[in-house]
Design goal:
alpha+beta; two-stranded parallel ribbon; 40% strand
Length: 42
């Protein structure tokens, strides 16, 4: 079973980054390897 998760988010603000972080935290709890790629705009 693949234990790697990549989360890619762009054109969002700080609130969207917080949601992505929550998803990554939940994935990490299930012993997954998590990578987050964010592009935040001003």
């Amino acid at each position: 079973m693949n234990k790697k998760i990549a989360i890619i988010a762009s054109n969002g603000g700080l609130f969207d980054a917080y949601k992505v972080f929550n998803i990554a935290t939940a994935a990490a709890v299930t012993d997954q390897e998590v990578a987050i790629f964010l592009l935040l705009k001003d």
